[in-house]
Amino acid sequence: PSCFGYPLSIFFIIINEFCERFSYYGMRAVLVLYFKYFLQWDDNLSTAIYHTFVALCYLTPILGAIIADSWLGKFETIVSLSIVYTIGQAVMSVSSVNDLTDHNHDGSPDNVPVHIALSMIGLILIALGTGGIKPCVSAFGGDQFSDDQEKQRSRFFSIFYLSINAGSLLSTIITPILRAQECGIHSKQRCYPLAFGVPAALMAVALIVFIVGSGMYKKVQPQGNVMVQVSKCIGFAIKNRFQHRSKEFPKREHWLDWASEKYDKRLIAQTKMVLKVLFLYIPLPMFWALFDQQGSRWTLQATTMDGNFGAIQIQPDQMQTVNPILIIIMVPVVDGVIYPLIKKCKINFTPLRKITVGMFLASLAFVAAALVQVQIDKTLPVFPTADQSQIKIINLGTNDATIKFEQDLQSVSVMPMQSTGYMTFEASQLKSLNIVSGNYSQTEVTNFPGGDRRTLGVKSTGSAIMTKWLLDNATSKPEEGNNLIRFINNFAEPVNITMGDTSFGTLASFSGSDYKLFPGGRKDEITVIRNSTTCSAVSQPFGFGSAFTIVLNNCSAGKLGVEYSEDIAPNTVHMAWQIPQYFILTCAEVVFSVTGLEFSYSQAPSNMKAVLQAGWLLTVAVGNIIVLIVAGASKLSEQWAEYVLFAALLLAVCIIFAVMAYFYTYVDPNEIEAQIDEEEKNKAKKDGHIYENQAEVDSQM
């Protein structure tokens, strides 16, 4: 059956690919944040495991291709590995349910190793699944066309690529929204089970859709795997060359010619072409090392930025959608506008030059990322070192207050209902401080340990000065764009405080609460119950990544009067500043990755495409391993410096590649094949002659 001149079975394959990519990219988008906030790993471990997983996903396709070509056939490989894949996604989803081990219902898992073990099993199954089907699905699609449908087949590959990007685009938008929801049985948490569960469900859909189409597929029998043959041929050549290494054996033109005792000329010629391309692949992993950090380092960078785009709040992991959106726009623009313009300017923009430009652009993108990082670092608060302490003063009374830090360190005046910023002192020097407010003065002893931040509440009443010390245990910027909020009760009697859905309980008069965590970018309603009367007010927006102390002052006609004191400033660098680096990196991807595969295919015989595909995916895997090595070995404390290091490494590799490309001579595989055909024909003729002559001699006997 056909539809629009395409085999009907194609539509099942495209829907299957869309769901599979949705499932994979959706899971990958929230993965690094899952490691960081749910499994509580630090940035470096999260980045390392993320890249290990991506590397695995690109190593397994080689396995998948061999299984399909030598043993099960593409159809059965896709079905069986999709089942493995679906199970993996489901295990991931279960691993992120914090109620699984959260016996004391405090909202964080009690037995983290259980979650780690489950998620690692899930990730290994996913890597097996996604990698194993990757080389089969597109080739299986290609098998559905008959030889006279060349045009439809190439159109199919474009639609196929589009469905990959559509799947990744939608999932990178949707999964982070699901993650940002609050869900849970006993305590409300970020909704990772939903963020992993939806991809798992879609993978199941992908599998069912694929099986439903089963009756319509053309199923090609497994032909044996060309990768295995090529490896054997190379192995034999090396072994044979080693056995004949002494001087008396004549040299051969190319080391692969040592395989000619066992393998035919055609395979040897094809292998030579393949190796020539694979040699050019050696520098390419460095590009992927930078490219795949979008999902790790760049996402972590976005967590320290401000995601307020007016009407919508962007989650840090959603910034990754910039890439697929730009891809969908850029591929047609580059193909239809930019390349023709370059051609008009009489510049010969060869595939290898395109790849070189792609590498250069990617290193530029990391320079941009480093510049953004420097801006972010400027906005980060300064916390006390181990031998410093920081003090901030809030005047809760109606008179001005003057505070003198003894030993003439400094003195400050604070207006009523105002607060100072944090003042930093050497802990050893700061012994006491003197407060003057109204008609009274009072001395406080301040021998605090180093490394502390404290807030001093001062209030002069009719008869004395009241003071209240609060320990500010927020000694790092709140993660994930969350905000920390606490209250000081400035009423004369105890009050019960609720903000949003979070209860702070009852707070005694003139005392402070602990900090509690709130999602970023929201305004919440503050409700106070005092002597059984209720007062409320809507808070100001707190931005992302801030900490505030809210002073509860008065209540008239149900309206609550509050003052805000900023303890940690919100993220001020806007997420939109990440767009330039994404844009440059996407341009790099368009000229690099699209060209790379086309170039490979044009330089090798058609039956060797599988080997090149494997080699290309291998460069991605190696790239992710490079991230592990560089990030692990560099020990750079500054993130911007690490970005610059990666940019410099890629630039160096880019120059090496340019030199290699300069010496590369393009070949036409069809010509070489034709030449071999010709030789074989002649040989057959020659053999024929010898045979005829022999027959003549025989007949004369």
TrEMBL record:
It comes from Pluvianellus socialis (Magellanic plover). It is found in: Apical cell membrane; Membrane. Keywords: Cell membrane, Glycoprotein, Membrane, Peptide transport, Protein transport, Symport, Transmembrane, Transmembrane helix, Transport. One of its GO terms (cellular component) is apical plasma membrane. Electrogenic proton-coupled amino-acid transporter that transports oligopeptides of 2 to 4 amino acids with a preference for dipeptides. Transports neutral and monovalently charged peptides with a proton to peptide stoichiometry of 1:1 or 2:1. Primarily responsible for the absorption of dietary di- and tripeptides from the small intestinal lumen. Mediates transepithelial transport of muramyl and N-formylated bacterial dipeptides contributing to recognition of pathogenic bacteria by the mucosal immune system. The chain crosses the membrane at residues 48-68, 112-133, 154-174, 194-217, 273-291, 325-342, 354-374, 610-631, 643-664. One of its GO terms (biological process) is protein transport. It catalyses: L-aspartyl-glycine(out) + 2 H(+)(out) = L-aspartyl-glycine(in) + 2 H(+)(in); L-leucyl-L-proline(out) + H(+)(out) = L-leucyl-L-proline(in) + H(+)(in); glycyl-L-glutamate(out) + 2 H(+)(out) = glycyl-L-glutamate(in) + 2 H(+)(in); L-tyrosylglycine(out) + H(+)(out) = L-tyrosylglycine(in) + H(+)(in). It is a multi-pass membrane protein. One of its GO terms (molecular function) is oligopeptide transmembrane transporter activity. This is Solute carrier family 15 member 1.
